[in-house]
Write the structure tokens for this entry.
Amino acid sequence: MDDTVDLGNRVLNSGLSKDLAGQTVTVAGWLQDTRNLGGIAFLLIRDRSGLVQVTCLKKKLGDEVFAKLSGVPRESVVAVTGELKPNAQVSTGFEILPTAFQVISEAGTPLPIGVIDKVGVELDTRLNSRFMDLRKPQVLAIFKLREILIRGMREYLVSQRFMEVTTSKIVAAGAEGGSTLFPIKYFEQQAYLAQSPQLYKQMLMGAGLDRIYELAPAYRAEQSDTVRHIAEFASLDIEMSFIRSEEDVMNILEGLMAHSLETVLREGKQYLDELGVEVTVPKLPFPRVTLADAQKLLAEAGMPVKGDLDTESEKKLGEIMLEKHGAEMYFITKFPVEIKKSTFYAMRDPSDPELTNYFDLDYRGEELVSGGQREHRINVLINQIEEIGYNPKDFEFYLQAFRYGMPPHGGFGLGIERVLHMMLRLPNIRECVLFPRDMYRVVP
Ligand code: AMO
């Protein structure tokens, strides 16, 4: 038995099938499990595409080699060359009979967490050893689906002539209120991590870019420890010009959600099955309910709320919308100025100055998106900045873009992890981030 393997010939496990019977193949990956039955041992090798069985016969390999191969610790990285042989008893329909076997990197024991053990492990423990946790197919499935979802979103935005941009995440002023800003020392100045590309998206409308999107991290110093807040999330932001009202923005958002969920269903079935979840593509148009009507519905259901919806009433509204409209996704529109006051850039409803042209998109009771029509008239915008006690001078870099020709525009910010959290019915949003950040976690 050769103990070196030429990795140049390596193929993914998913590239093998019983059609390759009799051929010599090379695979490499993590040794997931070994079943040693005395005269025969089955080694399961996992790569990102799936599992392959390597069958070792003591008679053929000799005692010493057989003992060595069947004694390699679980989760070691190994490479194997051997003959592919059909075998109806193996779930893939074939096995590999090794002619060369190399232990590339031996795993220590015991493992920090098991990869195949069914014992429930706390999320915190899993996150502490995330590299190992990610080896589990059910965990990997979340990130495969994340990638498919994002691909669907990009595809849709490109089809609607949106241009991808990248804006700085180091900023001099917040856009979403001071309480969740992360201050950073930036050379000799005070700066912050961007909570949202808000002000930059709008400046790009002043630059004439017309339709843009950005997918980038956004930072929030969230002081509360909840299952739906993280300190760093992936924000999909869009901004578009020459809109008639927020309805034009909502139409894009509906199309985006329907197309991306369709993509997930079409291309991610195997991963949804791995997680045991079913996803339904939302029908267009999504129901729209004003915040005032949502409050009425909640009062009728015995849960009166004044002002903005809290977590519990959002959840309840999700149940009501499902029951009343059969809708998992719906818009809450016409947020009052009182609630959106800190959103100084929000346009107020021309027919009712108490209301804004702002909306949320909720998915089964959780907010995925906030957006609306922006105020593009500089004088009104300056008034709104002053109304909440900010100094327009601090926003001069932004206001400049409104002085020399700014079209009517609007957009939204969507939390990617929120979509996954609800779509995959996961208990905690942290499951949708490779290396999540929160009040207590900054490693790994
Ligand atoms: P908002 O502050 O509502 O709006 O954020 C938009 C969306 O971002 C997601 N999100 C979060 N996800 C996880 N953890 C968090 N701590 C967190 N905070 C926000 C949510 C939310 O709906 N500038 C506006 C957007 C716009 O008007 O274009 C903004 O940032 O899914």
